[in-house]
Amino acid sequence: MQCLKTTIKLASLALILPLASAVSQSLRGSRSSVDLMYTTAHSHDLAFLKTREDIYAATTSGALELISITEDLTLDKVTFPFVLPNTHRFADSLAAEYHAGCGERLEVTSGARPIDEQPRNASPESVHPTGMAVDFHKPGGKCLTWLRTNLLALEKRGVIEATEEKHPPHFHVAVLSQLREPPIKLLAASTPASTRTATASGKVATAAGDVSLPQGSTKALTYTVRAGDNLWTIAERHSTTTQELQTLNNLRSTRLKVGQELKLR
Q1: How are beta strands 261-263 and 222-224 bridged, if at all?
Q2: Which of 37, 54, 147, 195 could be joined to 49 by an S-S link, Cβ 3.0–4.6 Å?
Q3: pTM higher than 0.70, yes or no?
Q4: Angle in degrees, 0-180, between the axes of helices 10-21 and 31-43, rounded to the nearest 10
Q5: Strands across the sheet with 73-75, in order?
Q6: Among residues 199, 172, 204, 170, which one has the least CA distance to residue 188?
């Protein structure tokens, strides 16, 4: 079985991200969206796993990780709750923001699916067999607006490629960056309500890219959390990792509070 790789060269990533921002940005899906996910998987040199035995072997080797149920995330009848490490980190981070933003746990309905067990309506170029994609249950009310708004914001930044599917209703999300520490920014989720506007259909009236993020010194020893921050952005700006920040500050989750002081070193 071809070995799964979870890292790519920065040069390859630079070629992928501009394309991502120009493809869909609507959550409606398209031929170009499918092509983007498929070509990205190949540029990462990811293996398209054929059987459930391949899925289990990849999980045993550590190439795929088990999605765990947490206070922010739950699973619903997921046959293969396994994904690539960065897709796992993305799902956990998104779930924490989602729970804080709309009061419900994010529900995963599918992870890696082997080629031999793809549903009839699946695209022959589906990236589910690689583990880079994850499906989320389609909620209702304010949670649906929240999810649409934030997935669209992340898609515009080239972090993900997302599609709102109808049969059955769910959100299909492929994490485009598979670097060891992806620069994931969940901006709309952490932005105060007074500085963002979303319509009932989930379209962003004020672009998430306009959100101002604090600039920090890489030599600082501590950092005070501000509105718009999350653990990913703080770690990226201070040349550290989310794991190191959690260990230094005895954090049991990625959730932060405005005014909270974090040790950086």
Answers
A1: antiparallel
A2: 54
A3: no
A4: 170
A5: 73-75, 106-110, 133-137, 169-175, 160-166
A6: 204
Q: Can you give the pLDDT at residue 28?
A: 82
Concatenating the DSSP letter of every residue in 131-179 gives T-EEEEE---HHHHHHHHHHHHHHHHTTSEEEEEEETTEEEEEEE---S
With residue 182 as reference, give the H or E element that holds it: none
pLDDT for 5 equals: 39
Residue 10's pLDDT is 27
Residues 127-147 have pLDDT tens digits of: 999 999 999 999 999 999 999
What percentage of the chain has pLDDT greater than the value 70?
74
The one-character DSSP state at 62 is T
What residue ranges define each of the domains in the chain, with the CATH number in brackets? 10-182 (3.30.1380), 212-263 (3.10.350.10)
Q: How far apart are the C-alpha atoms of 45 and 89, rounded to whole Å?
A: 20
- Sequence-distant (6+) residues with CB within 8 A of 198 are 145, 146, 148, 149, 188, 204, 205
Distance, CA of 38 to CA of 127 (rounded, Å):
6
Question: What does the DSSP 8-state code read for residue 56?
Answer: H
Which two three-digit tokens encode residue 229?
A: 């921050």
In whole angstroms, what is the distance from residue 153 CA to residue 156 CA?
Answer: 5
Q: Residues with Cβ < 8 Å from 32, sequence gap 6 or more?
A: 23, 24
User: Considering only CA atoms, which of 59, 22, 261, 10 is closest in space to residue 156?
Assistant: 22
